[in-house]
Amino acid sequence: MIRGDAHAAEHLSTFSGYTSTDRMPSLGRKHHEQETGMQRIVPNIWFDHTAEEAAQFYTSVFPDGRIVQVQHYPSEGLPDFQAGMAGQPVTVEFDIGGYRMMGINAGAEFAPNPSVSFFVHFDPADADAHARLDELWARLSEGGTALMPLQSYDFSPHYGWIQDRYGVSWQLMVGGPGGEPRPFIMPSLMFGHTAQGKAKEAIGFYTWLFAGDLGTVSLYPDGAGSSAGQVMYADFRLGEEWFAAMDAADQTFTFTPGVSLLVWCDGQKELDRYWEQLSAVPEAEQCGWCVDRFGLSWQLVPDNLNELMTRPNAYATLMAQKKIEISAFS
């Protein structure tokens, strides 16, 4: 099912009119990322009062898991809708398998769904790969729901798709797409429901904006009905980070703020450039959050946000903003 296809890659790269010669300037992003070792795009998952619990669970079941940092709501001065969260964790940053993620500790307003899932790749050269996958599958299955059963498929000898107890979706597989090596954890974007059929355009746009590159591409064949020519599977790099994407017909869900992508921006100029290109839903703009034309949620924040949040009245300043303006923090 998943293969490298040079013709498909060429078709995909030009689908939306973006080419390597007219990419958005990266403003030194790739160099900065390589210099600092910092993961520039970090998936953020919305939890209903369980972010810290979920982070502790993930860091216990994935290899090399650790809690990196916990930020807390102010103990006073919160708006009425957040008053009950005073002093509690607001974000929990954690690493699993060398990959950075963040949990947002909030209410039941949003929840993750399978429109954004996470591939977990196990090296087929590892004699214990199947056993390691099975062990992780068993832990993630506790209180979860299998979306695709763990078994052999044409594209992997051992694969399963599980939605865990917190609603987060994981695709566990031995091997990478087309047999090519990929990072242990890789976010996957499913373009379904109102976004169905837009994966080509989105990949072209994202790789242009973030000076990225295509990897493996496979399109639905001519006999696939209304899905013919759409993306069955593709993966791509944005800066130094890998993502996957696919179109999926007959889905009843699409992107929500339940999973967003946080981008650490190198100063106001870079933040402004990304905001101009990504923000397409004015009513969704709030304290650094925006929603793009495909419905995917982003958080565009300056590299020094943690330091900014130590300044007087920082939380109120942030909550009053749409696009973050660094100069507004006293």
Task: Give the key terms.
330 residues; alpha+beta; Signal recognition particle alu RNA binding heterodimer, srp9/1; 8-stranded mixed sheet; 7-stranded mixed sheet; 8 helices; 15 strands; 33% strand; globular
Query: What are the segments in which pLDDT stays under 50 over at least 5 consecutive residues?
Result: 1-9, 25-36
Apparent shape: globular
Return the average pLDDT rounded to an integer: 90
Walk across the major sheet and give the strand order.
6-7-8-5-9-12-11-10
Distance between the termini: 54 Å
Compute the number of helices.
8
Calculate Rg over CA atoms. 20 Å
Q: Please report which band the strand proportion falls in: under 5%, 5-15%, 15-25%, 25-35%, 35-45% or over 45%.
A: 25-35%
- Topology as H/E string? HHEHEEEEHEEEEHEEEEHEEHH
CATH architecture label of the domain at 6-26 and 114-161 and 168-248: 2-Layer Sandwich
Which bin fits the share of residues in helices? 10-25%
- Count of DSSP strands: 15
Report the sheet with the most strands, covering strand number, pairing sense and barrel closure: 8 strands, mixed
Structural class: alpha+beta
